[in-house]
Amino acid sequence: MTTGEVMRVTINFYSYFRDLAGCADTAESVAEGATIRDLLRQLVARFPKLEAMQNSMLIAIGLEYQTRDYKLKEGDQVSLFPPVQGG
Amino acid sequence: MTTGEVMRVTINFYSYFRDLAGCADTAESVAEGATIRDLLRQLVARFPKLEAMQNSMLIAIGLEYQTRDYKLKEGDQVSLFPPVQGG
Amino acid sequence: MKKWLLITNEPIDERALTMSRMMSADMGTALYFAGVVRQSEGAARIAAIEYEAFQEMAEHQFEKIFVAIEQKWPIESIRIVHRIGLVKVNEPSLWVEVIAPHRGEAFAACKFLIDEMKRLVPIWKRPRE
Amino acid sequence: MKKWLLITNEPIDERALTMSRMMSADMGTALYFAGVVRQSEGAARIAAIEYEAFQEMAEHQFEKIFVAIEQKWPIESIRIVHRIGLVKVNEPSLWVEVIAPHRGEAFAACKFLIDEMKRLVPIWKRPRE
Fold it and tell me: Is C11 left (phi over 0), alpha (psi -120 to 50) or beta?
């Protein structure tokens, strides 16, 4: 149930997602009650090169991994990146 | 089939088997065709403290492990020792 | 369990790390893993790998792995160094030390740590020619 | 596979051993195991362990284990040092290095080597108070 309010979230890109987006970070406004899935729809519209990455994309809010069903909160720091490869 | 000939073998004891036998090495005469099993019977008669060790005893001829069915050969170097514990 | 983590741009000094080992008298195993940059990455020859980390999240995710290890095995301590920035072929990018009573738990914890790191810790690499 | 074995009365110099590592540019893992004498052996407190080897057979049995490893995994080299004589609590009695392309085979070969050693290599220990 949305009240029509909007929330601001920041987005950080890591590794080659930065190249695909053409920037290291950005901000988006999303409707109240929006999920990561909704945010990704908006981001893919702005950064079409991210579309092909959606299946392998990892998503964190703050320092924790989240699924696409996560409900965004005002001020959330969203990180998007490809599979990790430490070691 | 034994011809009545005898063979000489040498026996080395390691670790606490040396204490049980009271010596580091010895020699035995065995009948031609004798196995390690036969040799052990003779040794237990000479060194009764080895009797209790028979189940855990490891046996090598030269540098290779052998079972009690091994047929001894003239001049064999038999080594008897408890379970190994390297590391 | 004692834990020590360093994510650093500086070369990994294996000698100094090995020599600074702390190990109580009840511990029987010290296990060391050094992950070293290879000259072949897939089919290509490379000269180096550039590592990038989302450092704050990497530290948090390592901490969660440490907690999981602590709950699984009686490990006395873990030290881990992950280098970031440019790491040349033949230089270590990752160094791990596990101190444990026996080898079984040392091997298990070390493998678990590296497997979980490769699944969860936000570090990425790019080959450089 | 390169193999190097030393059964020695001298203390194991881990620093010198680690620093003398030889590793080709296709290798990605160096794994080190140090087995250290613990102060508790069963219920008793000990001060040291005295190790004894049937040296010639020990070398032969290690060689057979090396051959088995060579047939199972693409290991570049193994170095192993086993100390004999009196080894005090907190000192290493065993040191192993495995150099391999990837961590999977390094862990597997190192565990196999130690497990097989404990089954086959004629070395014995006696706790000393």
Answer: beta
